[in-house]
Amino acid sequence: MVWRMAHLALAMLFAGAAPAAAGEPALSGRFEQGGLVLGSGAAGADLRLDGRRLRVDDRGYFIFGFTRDAKPVARLTAAWPDGRRWRRDLEIAPRQYKIQRIDGLPPKMVTPPQAVIDRIRRENKAIKKARMHDSPAAFFRGGWQWPAIGVITGVYGSQRILNGQPRRPHFGIDIAAPKGTPVRAPADAIVRLAEQNLYFTGGTLILDHGHGLSSALLHMARLDVAVGQKVTRGQVIGTVGSTGRSTGPHLDWRINWFAERLDPAQLVGPMPPVK
Fold this sequence. Notes:
3 helices; Glucose Permease (Domain IIA); 2 domains; globular; single chain; mainly beta
């Protein structure tokens, strides 16, 4: 059975799941590339997405997501100790992505010199480790907001051409704002990484929202929090900057479910007007 769900409002996504038949998990969210899905009703189950075991909390809540180029169908299965079994094949809608051209970058930021390759590898390893936390807290259910107010200049999934050279897609949202603009926690979280000077992303924070869901906030000028600190939605955690590989002051906001890169725009409403 292929189950395809329409877009649901953010309130539906995080305030409660859509109804399901008795004894079946309920799912709500966006079943598309880059989408995040919230589920409930799986307490005590061994729940798996394409064979990968998912964390299910004591109340039966769980999440999962689909990366930018996710395949058309994913299989979700559940098995309970009493012998019950459940399965759904989830249809994942494809998306069309923009082409984004960025010129004026220093050549060393497009193709790094060999001398810094080891540094980049170390930094990438630390970032990956921070994103792989599978903490039991369900901070993601407490609501979301934009981490900064500004003009959206880059969107999720766009293919990047840097100084005329095709590069990896962009996995975040770029928010242009003056240097020093406050950056706020988009949701409750634990700080898992706080680095002032990474090669590509400059001032970088990674926030753990629970169950493998994390935010990365990049190119920041100032970091006001430390690793291990609990932050709450709306709390000022630093300021907008233009550090790392950047052509001007902006905040790059990214969302991961473990290694899967999701679209942050799905968690928030329209960008508020710039005052």
